[in-house]
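hey so u asked for the seq, here:
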Amino acid sequence: MSDGSEKKGLWRTLWSPSARYTLGSLLLIGFIGGIIFWGGFNTAMEATNKEKFCVSCHEMKDNVYEEYKQTIHYSNRTGVRATCPDCHVPKEWTHKMIRKIRASNEVLHKVLGTINTPEKFEAKRLELAENVWRSMKKTNSRECRNCHDFDSMDFGRQQRRAVQQHIEGIDAGKTCIDCHKGIAHSLPSMTEVDPSAVIGDGEKH
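ran it, structure tokens below
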């Protein structure tokens, strides 16, 4: 029998109205299709969860990425680097899906050119920063705590000022983002919301 005849015979068997084959064939097709779909879906998810993807648009690469490269999260004595998704994408699957769905709004603004120039980006910096701070506050700085945890801190190795602030933060029920807003990116000018707030030369806290 030729290859063409064998293929036709297989398809006839798979799609035959015979109850003997139909249910099993449909289950087999569904199972294989599910594996292919899930594999493709997860591959796409992982591809969009890499720093290379995060900085593939110039809005990120030319602005916040350049700032991040000057911080301890990018380069430090231990060689442990926190990348964009480490800080901005949850690891738990459900929360990750929610974050990815919300990220579709960022695609829209990419198309609209909302922050496609340094000037536009600076004009929106405070609003963008406050969105991130609000989200991190709501989750108790969940992504920070993937690496940093109060229970794991060795206060004996911290500077006296840091020990005091961490203890006060624990007692007050504060979360990481309450004090470390400028740890990976330059802080926006806060004069719009508080005229007394003066931050000099991109000060990091």
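DSSP finds eleven helices and no strands in the chain. The chain has two domains: 1-47, 56-205.
lmk if thats what u needed
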